[in-house]
Amino acid sequence: MWLLWHFPLPPAAVRDHEAPGNGGATCRGLSAADMTKGLVLGIYSKEKEDDVPQFTSAGENLDKLIAGKLRETLNISGPPLKAGKTRTFYGLHQDFPSVVLVGLGKKVARIDEQENWQEGKENIRAAVAAGCRQIQDPELSSVEVDPCRDAQAAEEGAVLGLYEYDDLKQKKKMAMSVKLYGTGNQEAWQKGVLFASRQNLVHIRPRSWIEEQAMGSFLSVAKGSDEPSTNHPLFVGKGITFDSGGISIKASANMDLMRADMGGATTICSAIVSAAKLNLPINIIGLAPLCENMPSGKANKLGDVGRARNGKTIQVDNTDAEGRLILADALCYVHTFNLKVILNATTLTGVIDVALGSGSTGVFTNSSWLWNKLLQASIETGDRVWRMPLFKHYTRQVVGCQLADVNNIGKYRSAGACTSVAFLKEFVTHPKWAHLGIAVVMTNKNKVPYLWKGMTGRPTRTLIEFLLRFSQDNA
Q: Which parts of the sequence belong to the Cytosol aminopeptidase domain (predicted)?
């Protein structure tokens, strides 16, 4: 099965799915009215030893409203709050039974060139997420959040910090609505709602269409499963709905995580739907080849040779290197459109984790222009990218194999992330193409403070920001 999205200008089909009014983002559809509320407020660290920690403007306003009780209580409650730490106060205001102060660090708005992000924004996301988690309580159904000088970053922290997948559990976490406190920038707040939310909208291409397109490389992987899956920028996302490794079967430990091997497909879907909700004046096409990679009597065997849509033959020497096989046909197919750029986001290979850990998405690209656009977008969102090499040195390790034009694995164990993308490059002729290796950021293990453990949806916000900037450049 393939999923195909095409959002022609204007993208009107999803306008009726807006977030609740009054700047609210309500979890599980609960009304934000008539609920017992909590409040999250930011406070900056001292610039100098003799300074007094500074409230945000929202905190200053509340402190004046309650005759200085917030400052008074803070002064006797303990040492100054460090960045990302929280402190909860009770009974300060009749409308807010709980008030959580969160440490924002120093009052900065600079780009940290070593960290490749906007430090102030990232501090806000982490602090607000910590505050919202702290305030989750069965007695509180709603939380109002200080914009902290950047309403978008504050809302992203709130929504991402409160999100945890528990749909399959009988006992679910408290559903809590999130609203902007005070009179901050409502437009930026709603943008944060959009950037942090995930949605899907798809058009399904059946097996018969795939066969008509002569996508033999994709079908060579899909045939092992007995279960069918239900002037533009173009996104391609890998959609292996479960990856057992095929005949080259994976170890059972952590194989359950391979249900997330379709992370590229979900990421691009979220980015495209978000672009539609932003009414960006561009046409966007998205492709996601979807199938399982399972061992069976019909599955690929080592040494099998398949033929991709562009006619190149592929020798399969490892059935667990299946993502590049389905993407080969997807990348061939996208060249039938009139495109400005091609981006594919995939959990192509876990070995990129050795190079980058979870610090950033690895980007391989044949265009410095495209790389700079992605880099600037990632600095804004804090969901970083890092450029990886796409040398001919790696191409020579996948071409000229014994039986076919190209091999689905490199000649050597080293540089597996680089050789996997060198394989993809054999099916790309477009001068502005980028591959985003997201296996490294697929899950979170408490390394990103405003994300729960589990699947992350990274780098959706960076892709949305890229599309936003792309649309402005091409207006």
A: 318-325
Helix axes 186-196, 460-473, angle to 10 degrees: 130
pLDDT at 19 over 80: no
CB atoms inside a 10 Å sphere around CB 175:
14
Torsion of CA 56, 60, 66, 71, to 10 degrees: 80
Burial of 199-215, coded b for 16+ CB within 10 Å and e otherwise, reads eebbeebeeeebeebbb
Rounded (10°) angle between helices 416-425 and 323-334: 30
Distance CA 237, CA 235 (A): 7
Assigned token pair, 321: 């290197």
- Which pLDDT belongs to residue 375? 97
Side by side, the strands of the sheet bearing 304-307 are 304-307, 313-316, 406-407
Most confident segment among 134-143, 272-281, 379-388: 379-388
What pLDDT, in 10s, does the model give residues 102-158? 999 988 778 888 899 999 999 999 999 999 998 876 667 889 999 999 999 999 999
Residues 250, 307, 312, 387: which is the catalytic one? 250
Q: What is the mean pLDDT of residues 196-201?
A: 53
Do 271 and 195 touch, CB atoms closer than 8 A? no
Q: Please give the model's pTM, rounded to 2 decimal places.
A: 0.79
Cα radius of gyration rounded to whole Å, the chain: 24
Please name the residue that has the structure tokens 């995939």. 346
Domains and CATH numbers, the chain: 37-165+173-193 (3.40.220.10), 207-473 (3.40.630.10)
Catalytic residue (choose from 149, 309, 324, 432): 324
Residues making up the chain, counted from first to last = 475
Asked if the model's pLDDT at residue 7 lies above 70, the reply is no
Catalytic (active site) residue 309: no
Let me know if 223 is a catalytic residue: no
